[in-house]
C-alpha cells in the first residue's frame, strides 16, 4: 500500500496546487454530462467527489482500490428503479446503499466498499440529483462503508425515470458466520427482525393511486447491526439469513424452503405488522407477507440458540419488535404453510405476477 | 472455504434431487419478471444460471463469494446504455464485460469476479435477452472472469431502451504494477494499443442517421493481455494506463495531463486510425481523437523502456498496430497539444458537449 499511499498524497498535493475544479452549477442534467468530456468532469469533481468524499474515490482512476487481508470475499450487486424516487422514510439513494449492504450482511459479510453507478435522465433537476448523492453519502456513513468507485451515464428524456442506481458492495465474510441458503434444518426457529410490509406499502401509498392516507414509512435501514448481534449470540447456530425484499417474506421463505428441501410453518398471528400497514393492506386486499421490506431480515436459528438470538436481536435499535414467527419442518419439502391461529393450515406460495411493481 | 464447499456440494445434491427448475419459455419480459416471485425465479433458474454457469452464482444467495489471498483489491463499476444494443463487432452484453474488466486492467488488476445487474424494459423480446446473456457469458469466458452475483429489475415499456446493464468487476492489483493517474512524467512516451475511434464510429453508423455505409466494426475487446504484456516488458516503468472510452483519446489525455500536472504532445500523423473510420470521420466533421474506443488503451512509459513496451504490445493479438504517438512534457501544465506534422501546434481540449451520445 505504500505506493498507493504515495499516489494519494501526490494527488492531494496536485489537487491543492491545481486550479480548483469547476463547481457543479447546472440546473439540469444534459446529455453532455454523460459524454465523458468537460461536463462529465464538472459533475464528478463539482458534485460527486465533494459529496461522497472518499479518499480512494478522489483518485479518479478507472477503479477504486483497497488493501485486504485474505479471506472469503462476498460481493453483491443491485439495481434500483424505485418509483417515486423519494418516499416517506427514504429515497432511492438511501435504498441503493442499504439494499446492497444488506445483501452482504445476510451472507455474514460486513460491507467495506461500495461502488455507485447512476443512469440519469436528461432534464433531471440538479436539486434532485444533489439530494440523492447526499442520501448515498449519508447512508454509506451510517452503514460505515466507503464509496470507492463510480460511473454516470445519461439517457435521453423519457428513457429513464429521473434516475436508476446500481450499487455493488464488497465485504469479507465474518469468521462467526456459517450461513447457507441450503442451511435450513428441521427444528430451526424462524425469526423476523421487525414489522413486515412497511416499505412496499409506503411506496404504494406514495404513488397516490389510492386515496388512502396513512402514516406509513419505509423500513429501509442497514442490517449489519442485527446480523452482528445474531452472530454474537448464536454463531454457527444461525443457519441462514435472508432480507425479505421483493416478493416479501412469503417469497423469501419459499426460495429457502426449496433450496433446503424442507418445509416452513409460519404462525400468522405472531407476524409483526404495523397497525397502519395492516389496515392499508386489508383495504387493498394484499397480504403483508408478500409486501417488500428493505430493512427486515429472516433468520433461521437452531432451537437451542433461538431464545438467545431473539433477545440479542431485540436489543438492536430498530429491531425491538423482532419476533419468533415459525419453525422449519421436515415436510412438506419445499413448501411454506401458514397457521392462521384458528385451526387448519394454508399454503403460502411464492409471489405470482407483480401487484406492486418497482418498489426498489 | 470448507463450509462453503460443503454448501456448494449440498446445493448440487439438492438441485439434482429437486424437481428441475422451470425453463424460461416466455416470449417477452413482463413486469412480473422483476417482482421477485415465481416469474423472477424462472428467469434466473431457467435462463441466467444455465447460461452464465457460475458455480458460485448457482448458490442463489444474496451475494457471491470467493476465497482471496491478501493484497490490494481493485473494484470498478460501469453502466451500459449503448444504443442500439447490437452493432457491428459487438453488443451491449459484450461491452458490459469488456468495459469493466478493462477498467480493472488499466489499473493493473486482472478481473477475477464480475457482477451483472440488468434493468430490462417490459416487452423486451426474450430472444434479445437470451442473446445478451449469452454474449455476457462468452465475453466473461474470453476474459477469464466468473460472473458470481447478479440482479434483474424490470421497468415499464418505454422507461428504458430494451436493456441497461451494470457490471462491477473485482480483481487483485498485479505485483508488477506501479500505476497512477498522477504518474505521468516528462519524457514518458505515449503508446496507443491500436487504431482509434472504431467503436464510436461503428455505433454512429449503426444508428443509420447518416447515409454512410462503411465496413467499420467496434474495437470492443478485453485489454488484460495488452496490460500483461506491458507490465512484463516494462514493469514499474509503465507509469499510467488508461482505456480511452467516452470522450476518446483526447479526453483521456486531458484528464491525465491535469491529474499529473504535465503537458502531453501528440503527433497527429502517427495516430493509427482505420481508413474507413478516418473517411467517415472526415465526412462527418469529427476528429477521431474524440471518438470512443472500447478495446484501446493508452500507456505512459519511461523512455528507457518505451521501445521494449511497444514491441511487447505489438506481439499481442489485436494490438499489431500499436504505436508510439507522443510524449509527456513538463509544460504547459495540464494541457494536450497536437503536432499536425506540418509545423505549429494546436490545443486538443477535452470533449465539450456530446456529439455521440450513448456509445457505451
Question: Describe it for me?
Answer:
The structure is a homodimer of 360-residue chains. Chain A has 360 residues and is α+β, with helices and mostly antiparallel strands. The first copy, chain A, has 9 helices and 14 strands. Chain A has 2 domains: 60-173, 60s Ribosomal Protein L30, Chain: A; 189-347, PurM-like C-terminal domain (Phosphoribosyl-aminoimidazole Synthetase, Chain A, domain 2, Alpha-Beta Complex). In chain A, the strands form 3 sheets. In chain A, strands 9-11-8-12-10-13-14 form a 7-stranded mixed sheet. In chain A, β5, α4 (126-142) and β6 (146-155) form a beta-alpha-beta unit. Chain A is globular, with a radius of gyration of 22 Å. Chain A starts with a helix and ends in a 13-residue tail after the last strand. At the A-B interface, α1, α2, β1, β2 and α3 of A face α1, α2, β1, β2 and α3 of B. β1 (64-68) of chain A pairs antiparallel with β2 of chain B, so a sheet runs across the interface.
Which characteristics define this entry?
homodimer, 360 residues, alpha+beta, 60s Ribosomal Protein L30, Chain: A, Phosphoribosyl-aminoimidazole Synthetase, Chain A, domain 2, 2 domains, 7-stranded mixed beta sheet, 4-stranded mixed beta sheet
Short description:
Two copies of one chain form a homodimer. By secondary structure, the first copy, chain A, is an alpha+beta fold.
Strand/helix succession of chain A: HHEEEEHEHEEEHHEHEHEHEEE
**CATH homology-level superfamily of the largest domain in chain A:** PurM-like C-terminal domain
CATH-derived architecture of the largest domain in chain A: Alpha-Beta Complex
State the share of residues found in helices of chain A, binned by percent.
25-40%
